[in-house]
Amino acid sequence: MSEMLFSGVWRSLLKFISKNAYIMVAIYGRNFCLSAKDAFFLILLRNIVRVGVVDKITEFVLFISKMVIIGLIVIVVMLLVQEDVDAVTGKGDFHFFVIFVNHY
């Protein structure tokens, strides 16, 4: 069973590298072995860096989006109930800061 799995994975890997190597041969006109090596490093190294960069950018955009949404919600709630909170406690702004931190 494990030999069949290994054989299938190996076959898929070779098919993937061969396809990309043939594309590199067509683009640059080099021999197959050099093109296979270039294709492998193109896929392995350059794309890993791109994936890392895209991941960090996405993480940053999601963080900013969360802060904007939470900030807008706190501002709307603050505008809706500001008079009630000030009348009861006199500390309205601090409570809204606690709500903002709690929702993040």
What are the salient characteristics of this protein?
3 helices; mainly alpha; 104 residues; 0% strand
Q: Describe it for me?
A:
The protein has one domain. The two termini are 49 Å apart. It has 104 residues and is an all-alpha fold. The chain is 92% helix and 0% strand. Helix 1 packs across helix 2 and helix 2 packs antiparallel against helix 3. It has 3 helices and no strands.
Spatial shape: elongated
Cα end-to-end separation: 49 Å
**Low-pLDDT windows of residues:** none
Structural class: mainly alpha
- Assign a percent range to the helix content: over 70%
Give the secondary structure arrangement, pairings included.
Elements: H1 2-28, H2 32-88, H3 92-103
Helix pairs in contact: 1-2, 2-3
